[in-house]
Design goal:
globular; eight-stranded mixed β-sheet; Glycerol-3-phosphate (1)-acyltransferase; 239 residues; alpha/beta; 1-acylglycerol-3-phosphate O-acyltransferase activity
Amino acid sequence: MPSPLLISQQLLTLMGTRLFVHHQDRVPSDSAILVVSNHRSFMDAPLLMAAIDRSIRFACHHYMGQVPVLREFVTRLGCFPLDAPDQRQQMFFHQATQLLQTRQAVGVFPEGAQPMVQLTRPDDVGDFQRGFAHLALRAPITDLAILPVAIASHAESTTSPFPLKLLSWFDPSEPLFNQAGWHPMVVYEHVDVLIGRPIWITDTQRQRYRGKQARTVVSNLTSRCQTEIDYLLRHSFSA
């Protein structure tokens, strides 16, 4: 069976996407990495794998593991759908930690599903959820880096293939699906992927996380990643 990286490269070729990668030398070569990126398209996971030239195990929305054809696609890409809400966080931490302990790359889209179901501008980034920061600080791994990456689409096409309410059949727990309108599908034609400076998790941060400064260290780490991605996007669109 082809690797997720090869499938990703073949998909981009099939779609005719022109991909330009910046700062690829920043990708850590021999360590566990947590890839954090902005998110607007179903193409983001394959795009990031092709950009860093490495298979990435992405956490994806619960409904993607419930829709038959979609489930096969994301599984072949190496993604792991999140569980239903009552067990989602615990299972995410468990699966992601196991992958990182074997020095694999794990990918997270901390904006969540919002920009996938409500079309946003290519230079907009929503507020980041903090789950990835908790994961990085909890994982018992000595050489773990968070790698912020910006996806900057300079030419794209958009269709609306199905109504949002269709997804509520597969995941009724998601309020974003319980609204009128159609699900946008963004296809990149010309896209820059800008790799940020890796953020290495330190023993000091982990010690603070286990104490009274836990909320502060999580907030600072989340903000640092979002700021880096914002900066990279501005640089791409101003160049």
